[in-house]
Design goal:
By secondary structure, the chain is an all-alpha fold. It has helices at residues 2-27, 39-54. The longest helix has 26 residues, at 2-27. The relative contact order is 0.19.
């Protein structure tokens, strides 16, 4: 079961990194842009967003486990 969680996180991270690099390549500017002016920064941001979107959560909680 853990392999599925981590493979999903890896796949989303890879897709995010590719999207970040594509954003740099097709839309990025040459001077003065913090995010799109450097391919490493835009790829890193894309990777971070992809991993955060797929990060495994805690799962469902039952009523007895909540701290109300």
């Amino acid at each position: 079961m853990n392999k599925v969680k981590y493979s999903k996180t890896f796949a989303f991270g890879l897709a995010g990194a590719l999207a970040g690099f594509a954003f740099y390549y097709f839309i990025g500017c040459n001077n003065g842009c913090a995010l799109t002016g450097n391919p490493y920064v835009s790829t890193g941001y894309g990777l971070s967003i992809g991993v955060l979107l797929a990060w495994p959560g805690r799962g469902k909680r039952t009523g007895a486990e909540t701290n109300d």
